[in-house]
Amino acid sequence: MPDPNDYDRILMGLNKLAFVLGLKEDTLTVSQGAPGGGAELGKVLTLAVPRPRESWSRPGYDALRRAIEGAPPGLRLPLALGVTPLGEPFVQDLAEAPHLLLGGSTGSGKSVALHGLLCGLLTVPPSRLRLHLCDAKGTELVAYRGVGQLYNEEVATDPKAIHDRVLALVEHMETRFAALQARGHRDHYAAWDAGEQDEPSRVLVIDELTDLLMSRPQAEDQLVRLAQKGRAAGVHLLLATQRPDARTLTGNLRSNVPGRVALAVQRASESMIILGAKGAEALLPPGDMLVTLKNATPARAHAYDIRPDDVASAVRAAPKRTNP
User: Fold this and answer.
1) pLDDT score, position 39
2) What architecture (CATH level 2) is domain 59-317?
3) What is the pLDDT of residues 205-216, one digit of tens each?
4) Do residues 218 and 212 touch, judged by C-beta distance below 8 A?
5) SS3 of 71, please?
6) Per-domain residue ranges for the chain?
């Protein structure tokens, strides 16, 4: 049996080992389980040793498209999170997540990772998806104006407009949920599979969530309602912030958003807020991330490197809307 004291000695010796290896500003990280899977993962530790920075390469938009095309069939809302340490595509289903909190400090690659997630969602036909895009700073998500999946053909940028969008989506969720129950369906996707549902899924995307909650603190209650009942009505949250703060991102909201993506942060306390565990403070920006879905052990991944030209290409390639 492994000696638990060995684990403590490994953690305490990481800085010394990094010094011996000449890693300079980069750090070693330890995670539980083998990167390739296998038996008795709880008794295996993976020690990640970063390669020299000059040898780093990041998969881009072409790799993201191949990952979506090669994803397992049946994904309703594909999220192209990036690649694993072994170079394998990491694609998950937002419909099963069913909500996601994405966070990281300035320079961590949070915005680029968010664009990767949105580019994956743009492969879903408008008949199956409406994106409610909210960008308090008006700098990141406005590039998606004109896509067929965009709700109301606009990106909400004013705090009041964003809050109104949240309120309207809560009302829509309650109406749809009542209609599903009246027809005897347990949820939105069961109705789709039975051929008795033609309403698209809804994904509320809020970039810089902290800005919204600071200016409209009452929005938290509505977001919690969406998180609690949204999946059954086909409504999902994709929330992003570069300022993880326990005063604004309260435990009530975070506990109802089980999917977490943490990029590099400054302090272990920020990692705890985003991920519910330490570790993100040791990540290597840009794009290095830890992902937790369905309360599983955090998995290491690296985000796709999506540039503005790639976003424009994804917008042009997105399926067009054929009905209002």
Assistant:
1) 44
2) 3-Layer(aba) Sandwich (3.40)
3) 999 999 999 999
4) no
5) coil
6) 1-56, 59-317
